[in-house]
Specification:
Distance between the termini: 97 Å
Structural class: alpha+beta
Helix content: 10-25%
Number of strands: 9
Radius of gyration: 28 Å
Number of helices: 2
Oligomer: single chain
Order of helices and strands: HHEEEEEEEEE
Largest sheet: 5 strands, mixed
């Protein structure tokens, strides 16, 4: 009996209204099921950038190398995974290359490597959020390296 009531109620709704309701329902459901998120950090996030080592020893031939880490956190300190970060530098070159999009990992971190012979400022950006770090250089011409190991008493 309930099936007949439903059919009767549906038959009293004009077809154009039924189609409109169906399209509106589908549009609502497709928006509610959208799993894609914005890959850039929310405007109130913070990027902390660090280098390891902070001072690069530059050999007489070639570049010095340091690892750059950008950590992205929300305003309450929660690390933000799956967010796009791009790096740029005032000197040297980056790997991945500057302005390449790198997704933050499960710890909210994105990594790159700087190769340089001179001091540099590295900037990490996600949307409108930026963070920077300074890398210094020191030259060293090693003709000889002596390591003196003494036994402990």
């Amino acid at each position: 009996m309930k099936e007949n009531v439903r059919v009767m109620l549906m038959s009293r709704i004009p077809v154009s209204l039924a189609c409109g309701l169906l399209l509106a329902t589908l549009a609502f459901l497709s928006g509610a099921c959208d799993n894609e998120s914005d890959p850039t950090a929310p405007a109130d996030s913070v990027i902390t950038v660090s280098a390891n080592p902070q001072t690069i020893v530059v050999p007489s031939v070639g570049n010095g190398v340091t690892d750059i880490t950008a950590t992205l956190r929300s305003k309450n300190g929660t690390r933000l995974p799956d967010q796009e970060i791009t790096f740029s530098t005032t000197a040297g070159s980056l790997d991945p290359p500057a302005e390449s999009s790198i997704l933050t990992d499960d710890q909210g971190q994105a990594l790159c490597t700087l190769f340089t012979r001179t001091s540099a400022t590295i900037t990490a950006r996600s949307g409108s959020i930026t963070g920077t770090t300074q890398v210094q250089t020191a030259t060293c011409d090693l003709d000889q390296f002596v390591l003196d190991v003494q036994p402990m008493d």
